[in-house]
Each structure stands twice: as C-alpha cells, then as structure tokens.
C-alpha cells in the first residue's frame, strides 16, 4: 500500500479522530449503505456461524453493523494498514481479531475465511500501480484466494464521477469492466449500482 494512502488517512485521523470521516466516508449513512450492499454473499440464515475477513476494517464498524443486522455468529477478523485504527477497533471489539498490515503482502491462510468483504479500501491511487485497474485486480485475486464462499467489495463509479470535484487521489472505475473481470474468475458474480450514484458493489459467490 502506498505511502500517500497512509498519509491521507493519518491526516484524516488527526482531524476527525474515530469518526467515519477518518475513513473517508461523507456520512455514517453512506457508510452503512455501502455495508448493506455487501451482505448478499453472507449466509441467508443470519444465525449461521461463518468466518469473515474485513479488508480495510478501519474502526471495526462493519462488525458492529453486522451485529445490528442480526448476524449473531460471526467469527470476525479485521485488517487495516493503519495501526491506529486497528488499536481502536481491538479495544472496541475485544472478541474479534484485528491485524495491521498491507493486504497484498501480509501472510494469511489460503481459503482461510468463508467470506471476504471490503468497503472503501480499493479507491485510492497507488503509486506502485500506474494502472489502477491492476491494483484492483490484485486485490480481487487475493480476496478470492482467501475466501471459500464469497467475496464482496465496493468501488467508486466512473458513471458518477462528474458529480464531484476532481481529486487525483481517487480513482473512479468502469463498473462493467470490473464485473467482466470478476465473472471471468467467478461466474456467479453480480453488480449492484443502485444504492449510490457514485458507488457500486460487486458480489461474487464461489
């Protein structure tokens, strides 16, 4: 993960503390809408035990959201590049596991989780990848390798880019291109572009 990305979140954290704003979400509502769009790969019976890896977990907000949504048996692991976020999340949810590290390089078990979710962690331009799509594809490959049952993530949408002032730190993806790539790996993959005009979710069921 890039130095610029770490500096971006460190600056937000300095200004906003443990608010959703430190995670670059404009509001708690949009954060929750993004979470809700990822749930389609989780067990239909919300009492079914399952393991979950949350990539870019921030303060562990997804775990809290799942509990409020009725998922009562989640074996949760959160991973984030920001140690400050991980420390806060671990104190907030001591029953969970939290790790600090770069998702593309940290040692994790292949097929070690039923589901892998990621909200907001794939949007920032990374200097190690001149073509941002290659970064997104690398993240997708790793998520698929670690998940036994399903993967879901969201991205900023190229279709909604015109509604925002230009910020070169963020990349807006072609939803159709991402969907086609994922379907080449996992045929049972769907696109959800209905919850926010500038954001879309991909849900892949293995």
- The proportion of strand residues reads 15-25%
Number of domains: 1
Which geometry do the CA atoms define?
A: globular
Number of strands: 7
- Portion of residues within helices: 25-40%
Radius of gyration: 16 Å
Low-confidence stretches: none
CATH homologous superfamily descriptor: Vaccinia Virus protein VP39
Characterization of the model:
The protein is α/β, with parallel strands linked by helices. It has a single domain, classed as Rossmann fold, CATH 3.40.50. Helix content is 33%, strand content 23%. The protein has six helices and seven strands, in the order ααβαβαββαβαββ. The protein has helices spanning 3-16, 28-36, 61-68, 83-92, 132-146, 175-185, and strands at 50-55, 74-80, 97-100, 113-118, 147-156, 189-196, 199-205. A seven-stranded mixed sheet has the order 3-2-1-4-5-7-6, sandwiched between helices. Strand 6 and strand 7 form a beta hairpin.
């Amino acid at each position: 993960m890039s130095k610029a990305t770490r500096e971006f979140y460190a600056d937000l954290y300095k200004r906003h503390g443990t608010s959703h704003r430190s995670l670059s979400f404009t509001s708690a509502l949009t954060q929750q809408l993004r979470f809700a769009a990822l749930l389609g790969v989780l067990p239909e019976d919300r009492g079914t035990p399952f393991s979950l890896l949350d990539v870019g977990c921030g303060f562990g907000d997804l775990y809290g959201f799942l509990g409020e949504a009725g998922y009562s048996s989640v074996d949760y692991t959160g991973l984030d590049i920001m140690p400050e976020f991980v420390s806060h999340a671990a104190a907030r949810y001591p029953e969970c596991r939290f790790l600090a590290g770069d998702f593309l390089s940290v040692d994790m078990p292949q097929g070690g989780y039923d589901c892998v979710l990621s909200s907001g962690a794939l949007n920032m331009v990374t200097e190690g990848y001149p073509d941002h799509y290659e970064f997104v594809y690398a993240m997708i490959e790793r998520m698929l390798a670690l998940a036994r049952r399903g993967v879901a993530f969201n991205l900023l949408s190229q279709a909604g880019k015109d509604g925002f002032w230009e910020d070169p730190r963020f990349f807006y993806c072609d939803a159709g291109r991402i969907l086609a790539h994922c379907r080449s790996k996992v045929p049972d993959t769907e696109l959800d572009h209905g919850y926010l005009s500038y954001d879309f979710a991909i849900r892949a069921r293995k």
